[in-house]
């Protein structure tokens, strides 16, 4: 489905900067634990800077109250696995605070 590992790079001030990549073990872990729809949302976020709704954004911003409040029953069950996956595999600059999430979304994506 995805040709991995694909480096995540972006040009900042005329210099290409490496932001990370998803390795094969990250893909396997995501497909098994998150399911195809949530995994797809993670890939679109990490490689394109496109968040997938309020629940996903709340998780990315580390806003537990909003994440629990906005989750449906399926995503509420997936919440611990998503948090573990982000911590273990996602580039640290793409989640954790509202500022990091905003900065990631506002990168000049190709």
How much of the sequence is in beta strands?
A: 5-15%
Q: Classify the oligomer.
A: single chain
Rg to the nearest angstrom? 14 Å
Which spans of ≥5 residues are poorly predicted at pLDDT below 50? none
- In total, how many beta strands? 2
| SS field, number of helical segments | 6
Spatial shape: globular
Q: Going across the major beta sheet, what is the strand order?
A: 1-2
Count of discrete domains: 1
Distance between the termini: 20 Å
Which structural class best describes the helix and strand composition?
Answer: alpha+beta
The biggest beta sheet is recorded as: 2 strands, antiparallel
Topology diagram in text:
Blueprint: E1 6-12, E2 15-22, H1 24-33, H2 35-48, H3 53-60, H4 64-70, H5 73-89, H6 98-105
Antiparallel strand pairs: 1-2
